[in-house]
């Protein structure tokens, strides 16, 4: 479950708290208006004046005010997909040749040697060339065999699912009473009461309107920080999997570099298949790292745009409600 769910609850709680406070303040205004209405009723003509046609009645009118309040629900959505590299290191026998020297016996010179034979009264001589041999260094390509772990890259496709906020709107009705005082009489006293009644009605309506604006301001003040915290949490969750992937790639790149360094220390030629494979692995990892960084920037930008749009939608709806 997403760790951001708690911000969804805090968002809903902010709406509830503001709504409860509005109901409380409107109730106070209504009770105050009721008391003022009762005071006017006490000023009404009594006794003989009633027979002159005075009609005085204190009542209240039920008013209803509707406002669309935002609700947030986290819905799992696919925010992206990318290939995450996985590296398997396999031991390989590497055969290559390096120049080496060895001492070999070679003829370096010759010298003459006269050998004579006596045959009867005759002596026969002949010259024989003798070889001078010595060991001299000889360069040759010596076969080398080493076993080393060579990294092999496999790409694993991964879809990233994240609970993204969906804003819905609930029409909430708030009900309150406005005092209505009916005065029908031509007397000076009755006209004064009627003026006071109208003034009380305007005062009550003005207070109700003020409470409405205060209610809207409370929603905006309390919802905006929670909305921001929610999206900050979502950005952290969205980028965590990417950051984990980038950390893995960095580790793989380091491993490939260590393998290359080891091959170089063993004087493995750069045109050796294993050397070329390791170099290619490193290139693939660097390329994939660049793609993941771009994907991370894209995801963050999309979430930031969604945050701005949804907050503006909430603010406009509340302000114009």
Give a structural overview.
This protein is an alpha+beta fold. The protein is built from three helices and two strands. Helix 2 packs antiparallel against helix 3 (273-320). It starts with a helix and ends with a helix. The relative contact order is 0.19.
In short:
Mean pLDDT is 79; it is low at 47-54. The protein has helices at residues 5-42, 188-265, 273-320; strands at 55-119, 122-184.
Shape category: rod-shaped
The portion of residues assigned to helices is 40-55%
User: How many angstroms separate the termini?
Assistant: 34 Å
| Order of helix and strand elements from N to C terminus | HEEHH
Q: Measured on Cα atoms, how large is the radius of gyration?
A: 48 Å
Q: Which spans of ≥5 residues are poorly predicted at pLDDT below 50?
A: 47-54
Q: Structural class of the helix and strand makeup?
A: alpha+beta
Strand tally is: 2
- The number of helices is 3
How would you summarize the topology of this molecule?
Elements: H1 5-42, E1 55-119, E2 122-184, H2 188-265, H3 273-320
Antiparallel strand pairs: 1-2
For the structure shown, list the relevant keywords.
alpha+beta; 3 helices; 2 strands; two-stranded antiparallel sheet; rod-shaped
